[in-house]
Amino acid sequence: MSTSTSTSTGTSTSTGTGTSTGTGTRTRTVVTGLGITAPNGLGTEDYWRATLAGESGIGPVTRFDASQYPSRIAGEVPGYTAEEHIPSRLLPQTDHMTRLALTAADWALADAGIDTSQLPEYGMGVVTSASGGAVEFGQRELENLWSKGKEYVSAYQSFAWFYAVNTGQISIRHKMRGPSGVLLSEQAGGIDSIGQARRHVRKGFPVVVSGGVDAAVCPWGWVPQIASGLMSTEDDPARAFLPFAADASGYVPGEGGAILVVEDAASARERGAEHVYGEVAGYAATLDPAPGSGRPPGLRRAAENAIADAGLTPEDIDVVFADASGVPALDRAEAEALTGLFGPYGVPVTAPKSMTGRLLAGGAALDAATALLALRDGVIPPTAPVSEAAPEYQLDLVTGAPRERELRSALVLARGHGGFNAALVVRQPVP
Amino acid sequence: MTSTTSTTTTAVTLADLTRMLRESAGEEEGVDLDGDVIDTPFIDLGYDSLALLQVIGQIQREYGIEIPDDAVVDAETPGALLALINAGQQSAA
Fold first, then answer.
1. Average model confidence (pLDDT) for chain A?
2. What is d(CA A144, CA A138) in angstroms, rounded to the nearest whole number?
3. B68 in contact with chain A, both atoms CB, cutoff 8 A
4. CA distance A163 to chain B (A)
5. Rounded distance, CA B19 to CA B52, Å?
6. CB contact set of A398 (below 8 Å; sequence gap of 6+)
7. Which of A190, A244, A345, B45 is positioned for an S-S bond with A365, CB 3.0–4.6 A?
8. Nearest to A405 by CA among A385, A381, A425, A422
9. Whole-angstrom Cα distance, residue A102 to residue A215?
10. pLDDT tens digits, one per residue of A192-206
11. Element spanning A424, H or E
């Protein structure tokens, strides 16, 4: 759905000692707050319970009449009443996407125990990911323009559609005026925003709100995805999105995502942060070579760079949260990257996005949040409803029931349409 | 043929304006629009220029009148905006 980017490749790695504790003198960056709005759960604990139970939020599209489109299945956030979460003044000027993002940000900051009014305004930043912006709002106002005339177009269309709007509204609401921005790298953006947040923390800004929330379940959001040819046209919600399965048939889009509070570990400790979910230990981003170049895709290189950036080796990774396209050729490419890096069946792999759909700019942020919850509780959620990975992929895909085991480090992978790759390593916080 | 009764005799009241403000731009927490707000600056009521642009759009649609763009900056209070609207209606008659 998007092009253009401002991400560059990961931060320079300087340790490379292979020790699991060594980041030298560099400040540690941790996640202290999570806010989740997902198709299978509104709020972190609702989502996490449903995810461990294998409960899917994928179903027939209800936000618009999709009956005339070839793809009619989506992951929609259930039970969200905007008036319960958003102040009256913000309702006329916000799209569904921005309302979900503001709600997730409120929850993430509350979860972190941060009172932004007690911190320096210019010490706190906001970096979120976006794909096409607030297309539902934008479509409604453009329809008003075509069908009724310019005097029927909302004055708030001037910014409400804009792909930087989630960052802007979060920044305004919480008076966070430090370094802020928006990253557009489609599904990779959720990880890129966390990497960029870590960069700001390392430069001396102690609190950065990051992650991404997206919502494009409307015709304007639908049509460009159909044009990609990658969407599933299966009508049975239980069969529409089966990443890594032998009968995978494409992906199902969803809405929602996660907001993460990224903080300098030392200042989080000083202010007495209630909990630390984990450390943002490694990050890297790569771009695929141009089609026809003959060179391999960049996902494996992103994973390798992120693991090295964390000062780890592949043997240290306890679980991989896969990009999990659901498009057979892309599943195969990811499986090759994983077996190349870890060996056949070399690491547990999961893709709980099978229960939410691919959330565009929100997807990788939700995966990162899910990986942190997995570290917290020592449990890998399943790739429900996939029953098994296609044998040719040689993956140890977690299916059926959650798998309990001690988890120290998790690798999260994401690919954005257009050649974006991003990888994130999160690990248990150092006490 | 029925003669069309124009809306020009309908003055926009403060109650009309506060209703449209709520519908177009919401209501700031801690502000009581039903109180004595006729001379309270919009900015103190929690409305910025975009909120005014939005409500002026609604007034124009509901009453079928034209309000000059400058009203957003010229009318700093509900009273001033009402005076401008109702003067405009009479001159249009």
1. 93
2. 10
3. no
4. 19
5. 13
6. A319, A348, A349, A350, A380, A381, A382, A383
7. A190
8. A381
9. 13
10. 999 999 999 999 999
11. strand A420-427
DSSP state of A429: P
Helix axes B49-63, B14-25, angle to 10 degrees: 120
User: Nearest C-alpha of chain B: how many angstroms from A114?
Assistant: 22
**CA–CA distances in Å: residue A131 to residues A117, A168, A228, A235, A318:** 30, 15, 14, 25, 30
Nearest C-alpha neighbor of A243 from the set A318, A335, A319, A320: A335
Would the pTM of this model clear 0.90, i.e. be above it?
Answer: yes
Q: Which of A83, A86, A88, A144 to mutate to test the interface with B (most CBs of B within 10 A)?
A: A88
Token pair of A188 as six digits: 């990779």
Q: Determine which helix (DSSP H) or strand (DSSP E) holds A427, and give its type and residue range.
A: strand A420-427
B26 touching chain A per CB within 8 A: yes
To the nearest whole Å, the CA of B58 is away from the closest chain A CA by: 8
pLDDT recorded at residue B4: 46
Residues in chain B: 93
Best mutation target among A85, A89, A102 (most B Cβ atoms within 10 Å) is A89
Cβ–Cβ below 8 Å for A151 and B24: no
Of all helices (H) and strands (E), which one includes residue A170?
A: helix A165-173
Asked if the model's pLDDT at residue B90 lies above 80, the reply is no
